[in-house]
Every structure is written in structure tokens, then in C-alpha cells.
Design goal:
The chain is α+β, with helices and mostly antiparallel strands. The protein is built from two helices and five strands; from the N terminus they run E-E-E-H-H-E-E. The structure holds zinc ion.
Amino acid sequence: MSSVPVVGPKPSQVTCPSCKSSIMSKVKHKPTTKTHLIALLLCLCLCWPCVCVPYCVDSCRNADHYCPSCNAYIGTYQS
Ligand SMILES: [Zn+2]
């Protein structure tokens, strides 16, 4: 059994591994290689204003979860 909580793309109710409190995780999205590839594809097939789209779409990015009370890293949702 892994002690790392399973997290989704949205803030989730988890027990913080650091301060052991039941918290609603704070999510920070970050672009992945896939995000850059989609951006490149959109750039080639469409036009440049579309390039920012994958950077705004949650499903194209990983979501890092953090504890709002102690700021501990909880886990990452891989899109
Ligand atoms: Zn915590």
C-alpha cells in the first residue's frame, strides 16, 4: 500500500501526509510535454492565438496538490 493519497485534477479531500489533518488540497497546474506538443500542433495546423488554449485547459496539464495549512506537497495528478 502506498501512503501517497490519490488525487484528481481538481482540489480533493485528503489527509495531509505532513500535518495529518483532513484538508481540501490546493491545486497548482503545470504544463507537461503533452501541453507543449498540443500547442505546437495547434500552431502548425491553426493559428498562433490557439497556442495558448492547451495552457488554459486543465486536462492538458498536470495538477500538483499542496496542503493549504502547511504547504506540504501531497501528490500530482498526471493528465
Ligand atoms: Zn499539511
